[in-house]
Amino acid sequence: MRLKSYFADTIEEAISQARREMGSDAMLVNSKRSGVEARHLGAYEVVCAGETEARSETPDTQRKRSAAAAPPMDRLSQDVTELKQQMERLALTLARSGSGMAGIASDPELSKVFTQLTEADFYADLAYEVVGRMTTPVAPDALRRELGALVNIDSQLGCQGGSPGWPARTVALVGPPGAGKTTTLVKLALQHGINSRKRSQILTLDTFRIAAADELQSYAAILGIGCEVLETTAALAQALERHHDKDLVLIDTPGLANGEMDGFEEMAHFLSSYSGMDTHLVLPASMRTADLRRVAQRYEIFGPRKLLFTRLDETETFGPILSQSVRMGKPISYLSGGQRIPEDLEAATLDGILDLILKAEPAGQPRFGMAAA
Questions:
Q1: Each residue's pLDDT tens digit in the chain (373 positions)?
Q2: Is the CB of residue 329 less than 8 Å from the CB of residue 367?
Q3: Are 272 and 225 in contact, with CB atoms under 8 Å apart?
Q4: Which residues in 185-341 belong to E strands, given as ranges?
Q5: Residue 7, class by beta-carbon neighbours within 10 Å (0-12 exposed, 13-18 middle, 19+ buried)?
Q6: Is the Cβ–Cβ distance between 276 and 170 less than 8 Å?
Q7: Global confidence as pTM
Q8: What is the domain partition of the chain in residue ranges?
Q9: Which among 255, 249, 219 is positioned nearest to 236, based on CA atoms?
């Protein structure tokens, strides 16, 4: 089965195009008016599903494929992403309509809970879902219980059963420019490498930013651990084999802004393909909600297993942290809220995240509001 977008002046014409290309069984999945940038292609964009003629690769074949032979990102992956977004918008529309929205608006207690979530900048569709599961009278800890059921935490570094011939724990940090990947990587190296007496190594592919490698090498020299600057994905694979005896290897990657992803498909394929790679997507908690969602979507091609949020000291609303985790179906690993090394980095905890969202005041909390681990 494959998905494809067709542009035409009428929906019927687009469906006809789909059936000519994919066969008479092609089905309409979604339709919408074309955006301004695609208006010249047709008044409507229609997503259809049909059988593909190409034989799919088996999982075993995919694993064996070399990272150096990584294919370019094609239209299919974009179609799937667009379809997910369209379905999410549809779910939100349905949630706002009918008795669901009316029930929340007419009940003062549910309305108060909904307002609390929206003030925390919770994603609207998720806020409706949470409130929709609640009944009145609302128990004092009902919202905390509902949110707690959504929290997914995994602060373990490395993957169980990693790749043979690789270091025991291999961790890569990916994310947009300015997210704080390099500083976070140094914090992890100190907390989980040096302080735990683990043999550690830093590898960096960030030759994209001026003096980025010099900065990381300076940190590594202070910490007394090795740091290698690598130019290519092939060099990274060789370095991992060379440091197979290390307990922890941390990999820094370039921060890629919108429009800079071209040319990095090979790196993305390498990080997403190997079972021993524990990739954390580093996102600034202070980023605008719409930008956070867009950036997270852009970095899906790197196959992140976990989300790591930074810059918690620069915001007072923490709903997007949990909302993005739920939306992506990925656990939260660490939270960071400052430049101090290594103090301003903590393993995420259930109570800590709930305290942030609900603005609780746990004893001994650091300045960015996270409960002590």
A1: 567 888 888 877 887 888 888 887 777 666 777 776 677 788 878 777 776 543 344 444 444 444 434 444 555 666 666 666 656 555 554 554 444 555 666 678 888 888 889 888 888 888 888 988 888 888 888 999 999 999 999 999 887 666 667 787 899 999 998 888 988 999 998 888 777 677 889 999 887 765 667 778 888 888 888 899 998 899 999 999 999 888 899 999 988 877 777 778 889 999 998 888 999 999 999 988 888 989 999 999 999 999 999 999 999 899 999 999 999 999 999 999 877 777 789 999 999 999 999 986 554 454 454 443 3
A2: no
A3: no
A4: 200-204, 226-229, 248-252, 277-284, 306-310, 332-336
A5: middle
A6: yes
A7: 0.70
A8: 2-76, 97-148, 170-358
A9: 249
- Checking 93-102 for CB contacts under 8 A at 24+ apart, the result is 95/125, 95/128, 95/129, 95/132, 96/128, 100/128, 100/132, 101/128
Give me the torsion for CA of 315, 319, 320, 321, rounded to 10°: 90
Parallel, antiparallel or unpaired: strands 44-50 and 2-8:
antiparallel
How open is the CA angle 94-98-104, to the nearest 5 degrees? 95
Question: CATH 3.40.50.300: does it fit domain 170-358?
Answer: yes
CB within 8 A of 196, min separation 6: which ones?
A: none
- Please name the residues in contact with 249: beta carbons below 8 A apart, sequence gap of 6 or more: 167, 169, 170, 171, 200, 201, 202, 203, 240, 243
**Amino acid sitting at position 194:** I
